[in-house]
Fold:
Amino acid sequence: MTQIPESRAYDVVIVGAGPAGLAAAEVLAGLGASVAIIDEQARAGGQIMRQPPRSFIIRRWLPGGLYGALKALLRRVETQEVTWLFSTTVLGIEPAEAASGFEISTLSGNTLGSVKAKRVLVAAGCHERPVPFPGSLLPGVMGAGALQGWLKGQQMLAGETVLFSGTHPFMLLVASQMIAAGASVKAVAFAQSRRDFLFGVLRRPLILLTHWRVFLTAAHSLWRIRRAGTRIFFRHRVNAAEGSAQLSEVSLTPVDHRGSGTAGAEDKRFTVDRLGLCYGFQVSSELARQAGAKVRWLEAAGGWIVDHSAAMESSLSGLYVAGEITGMAGADASRHEGTLAGLGMASSLSLNGIGKLSRVGARARRGLAREKRFAAYLNRLSALPPGLLGAMATEDSILCRCEKVTCKTVREILATHPEVTSPNALKLLSRVGMGFCQGRLCYANAAASLIAAGRVSPENLQPFEARWPVRPVPVSAIPATISDGRCT
Amino acid sequence: MKSYDALVIGGGLTGCASAYYLAKRGSSVLLAERNEINSLASGQNAGSLHFQLEHRLLQHGSDKGGEFARILPLNAFAIQLWQTLESELRADLEITMDGGLMLAVTDAEVALLKQKNALERSFGIDSELLTAAELRKLAPYLGEDVQMASYLAEEGHANPRLVTPAYARAAKRHGAILKTGCEVVLLKPEGTGWIAQLRNSPGEEIETVRIGMVLNAAGAFAAEAGRLAHLHLPVFPLPLTMSVTERTKAFLPHLLQRAGAKLSLKQVAAGNVLIGGGWSSRFERSNGVPDYRRRPRAQLDKIVGNIALATKAVPALAALHILRCWTGTVGVTHDELPLLGEVPQSPGYFVAVGGSGFTLGPAYAALIAELMVTRRTEHDISIYSPARFDHINNFMASA
Ligand SMILES: Cc1cc2nc3c(=O)[nH]c(=O)nc-3n(C[C@H](O)[C@H](O)[C@H](O)COP(=O)(O)OP(=O)(O)OC[C@H]3O[C@@H](n4cnc5c(N)ncnc54)[C@H](O)[C@@H]3O)c2cc1C
Structure:
C-alpha cells in the first residue's frame, strides 16, 4: 500500500472498495493499468465484508460459505499493485470539459483533494431504507445492516436483547449471527405472510438449485434462530418503538395482505434494547447522478438505478457503474458486474492482454444472469406491501430525520399546495431532504407521499438534484486561497 | 374559447405577484407556468433584500455606477412593499429587515463605499458609514480585517421558499387561475387582444385562449417568451451558484455583502447560513450547445472562492459544514435596469423582468399590474420601459 500525493492521474479511479470495485480492480491491475480505489471506510471490503480493525486478529471474521469467493477476491487484490485511498470521501466527479477523462474531488479528514482519471467506476453500494413510524429515531432503533456492521467491525455485541422487524430475509442472517455472538433475539417479524415466501420459491423452483448455498445458509440461520427460542412472526409490522432516552419496548401489530392494519388488542409487546429494521435497501447512486449519468426509478430494485451498457458504461461516456447502483442484486452480482466493468474499461483503454480474458467475461456474464434472476425473486419477495408505509406512519412520525419533518407537515403542505407534483417542489416547501443526508434517506418516503396523494406516477418521478458536494464538507477544509473574489 | 383579461407567462415571483396584483385590481387572470410554481430563480435565489448598490453595479467605475443608480427609486418603493408584505399576503415569509452591512476590507473598497454612499443619498437611500470600532459593537462576529461598512437599516432577507407560493395562494384567493405544467407556445395579436396557445403536460394537448393583455414574466427565458410574439427582448441568462451551511444557533442578524467582491451572507430562520453573492456556475450543454433550461453545473473553484471570502468576513463559519451547493439562472439586461412596461410596437404586450428580482419582484409586479390596469403608474417607470429597444423592435413589429 502506498500513500500518494494529491491530484495524481490514474488510468482508472474506482469509487467503492466492495465486491464490485474489487473485482474491477483485479481485472485492471492484472492488465497493468494504474488503478486507485477510494473508499469512505478505513479498510477494503465494503459493507458485506466489513473487516475487523487491524488491531483485532480474528481468524474467521466472516463465518459461512457464502463469502468464500469474496474473501479470496479481497486477498488477491490486496497483493496487487493498486493505490488505496481509504477514509476518503468522494464529493463529486467532473467530466473534463474539452478532453476525455474526469477530475474526482475528494475529502479525507479535513483536506480537500482531487485525483484525475481516464475512466471512473462508481460502485458505491447501497444503504438501508428507513421507514417512518412512532419512535423511529429513538436510540437503539437501527437498520439490521448497521447492527451487522457493528457485529462484524468490532466483534462485539450491539445489545443484549434484540427484535427484528421488516420485509427482507436479510434479517434472518443478522439474527442468527447475533445469536451466535451471544445476543438474545426475541423475535423476527415479517410483514409478509409465510405463504408469500413459500409461493415465491415454488414459482421459481430452479432457484433452489442455482442458489442452494443461499437457502442452506437461510435454513441454517432459521435452525439457529429456532433453537435459541426466537419467535418468528409473519404479517406483523412495528407499531411503535418506546422508551424515554433509549429504546426499551417495541410493539408489533398484525397486518393484512396489503400491509394495512391498525394497532389494537392483538398487539404484541417486547422488552428489548435494540430494534433491527430491514424494509429493503436504497442504492447510493447520487455520485453517478452528480456526474451526469442517466438514472431510472425502480423502487423494488433500490430507487434511482443507473442505466448502463453491457460493458457497464453509463450514459456518460467514460463513467462506468457496477454493483448495487445498477439495481439491488447482492454481493455476487456486484462482483460479476465489477469484472465486466473492469473488462469494459480495459477494452476502451485498449490495454494489452485483454484478449486472454474472454473466458473471464463469459463466466461473469453467466454468473450475473444467474444472480439477477435470484435478485428479481428476492426483490419481489421483500417489496413493501402496498399499504404498509401508510399504516406505519402516524401524523407525528418523522419523514425526514435530518430536518425533523413530520408526516403531518408533509400532508398539510400537499393539501395547501395542490399544484405540487415533484419531490423537488415538496423539498422546497417542506425542507424534506435539506439536512445532513441530503435526502439519501428520506427521498423514497417523500416520493411515496406524493404518489399516495396522486400527484405523480412512478414513471414521472424526478430525483432530488445531486450536486457537488454529495456529502457535507467542513468549511475549514476549504482553502482560503482566493481572497479578492475577483475571479468570476 | 375561454377568454381572460390577462395572461401571465411564468410562475416565478414576478409572475405570481403580478397575478395577485392584477386579480386584486379586478382583472381575470390566467397564469401559465411550464414547470412548477417557484421552481426556477425565484425559489433558488439567496433571498437577500438588498437596497444598497451591489458589488456588480459598482465594479465598473463611477460613470457606470451613476447609470446603474437609476435603479434606486425602485429600491425605495420595494422597501415599503416588503415592510407590509406578510400582513398583505397573510403568511409568514421569514422576512427580517434588521439591517444590512456592506463591508470594506481593502482601501479600494473603502473608497468605493464612500462614493456609493454619496450616490445613494442623492436618491434618498440613507445608508450610513460605520467605522471598525462601531462595527465591533454592532457586529462582533465580523473578521478583524473589516475596515469599514455601509449600513442600511432596512436591508435584510426573506425566505424564497415561501414568498412566491404565498403570492400564488393569494392570487388564487382573488380568483386568478394558475396552471402548472403549462407552456405558452404561441402568441398572435387578434383584434385589440391576443390569441395564445398553451401546451399542457403530460398529455401535450394544445389549448387556445383569447386574452386582452400578455405579461411576459418569464425571467431568464424572457427573450424566448418575447420571440413567441415576434419581439426581441435583450435579456441574458446568467448561471449562478449558492452554498448553505448546516444549522447553527442564531448569531448573524444582518445581511452582509462586500463592496469590492462577490459576497452575500445571511442566517435564515432555521439557523443555516446562506453563502452567495453572484459567483457563477456553468450551463450544461445539450447536443453541444449551452442549454439554459437545464440546471447549470456547479463549479468547484467558484464555490471554494465564495466560501473563502465568506470565512474571511465571518471567521466563525469555519466551525460549520457546507451541506449543499446549488445553482440557478437569473435573467439580466445589458444595462442592469429592469425591462418594465409595454412594448410600444406591440400594444397589449407587457414585460416585467430584471435582475435582483427577489428584492424587486414585488415592486416589478405591483407597478406592472398598475400600468396594465390603469394605463399609468404613480411612480415614474419610463426609464425602465422596453421602449429603449425601439431601434430593434421597429424591425420586428407585426403591426
Ligand atoms: C442563485 C441565485 C441567487 C440570487 N439571489 C438573489 C438575491 O439574493 N436577491 C435578489 O433580489 N435576487 C436574487 N436573484 C435573482 C432573482 O432570483 C431573480 O431575479 C428572480 O427570482 C426572477 O423572478 P422571475 O419571476 O422573473 O423569474 P423566475 O423565477 O425564473 O420565473 C420565470 C418562470 O417562467 C417560466 N416560463 C418561462 N417561459 C415560459 C413559457 N413560455 N410558458 C410558461 N412558463 C414559462 C419558467 O418556467 C419560470 O418558472 C438570484 C438568482 C439566482 C439564480
Q: What stands out?
A: Chain A touches chain B through 41 residues (CB under 8 Å). Residues 52 and 154 of chain A are 6 Å apart (CA to CA). Residues 358-382 of chain A form the longest helix (25 residues). DSSP finds 14 helices and 22 strands in chain A.
